[in-house]
Amino acid sequence: MIKRKRPLENVIIEITPMIDMVFILLLFLVLTTTFVVYESKVEVNLPKGKTGTTVTNSNVNSIVVLIDKKENMYLNGVPVTFKTFPVELSKILSSAKNIKSVFIRADQIVPYGEIVHAMDLLRQQGLTNINLLVEKS
User: Fold this and answer.
1) Res 1: pLDDT
2) Helix, coil or strand: residue 78
3) Is-contact 107 79, C-beta < 8 A?
């Protein structure tokens, strides 16, 4: 039996699907980075304390409430008001079931009443392990 060799066909690499995938990835990265609010952009002067401890991995199983000197409030980096705070907090609690602690990063000139109000809203949702962050002096 004689085997016939078939002539080699020209192989054409389709580049259009690859360009589509690169475009989709680029679009995804652009959209996700424009909507991210970083805590480091919000400037907070924490009160100083000699007995403060360093917080490590505060984002794992925890919630961070940030109040800046203009009394703007952020819940895990999302801007909130006292009216929208319970709604956003319940969203976080429903998505992450294992919340162990809450860290409040409030500027040193924020009125005491604002911090107590935030703590009260947290306790209404059943969160009792609330920590006030300070800058160790």
Assistant:
1) 64
2) strand
3) no
* 13 exposure class (CB count in 10 Å sphere: 0-12, 13-18, 19+): exposed
Nearest to 74 by CA among 57, 60, 92: 92
Amino acid at 90: S
Q: Which residues pair with 74 in a beta bridge?
A: 66, 79
Compute how many other C-beta atoms are within 10 angstroms of the C-beta atom of residue 63: 22
Nearest to 102 by CA among 84, 80, 114, 120: 120
User: Measured between alpha carbons, how far is 103 from 62 in angstroms, rounded to an integer?
Assistant: 7
Tell which CATH architecture fits domain 40-136. 2-Layer Sandwich (3.30)
19-54 pLDDT, tens per residue?
A: 999 999 999 888 877 665 554 567 787 888 888 766
pTM for the model stands at: 0.65
Residue boundaries of the structural domains of the chain: 40-136
Is pLDDT above 60 for 90? Answer: yes
Q: Is the pLDDT of residue 10 over 90?
A: no
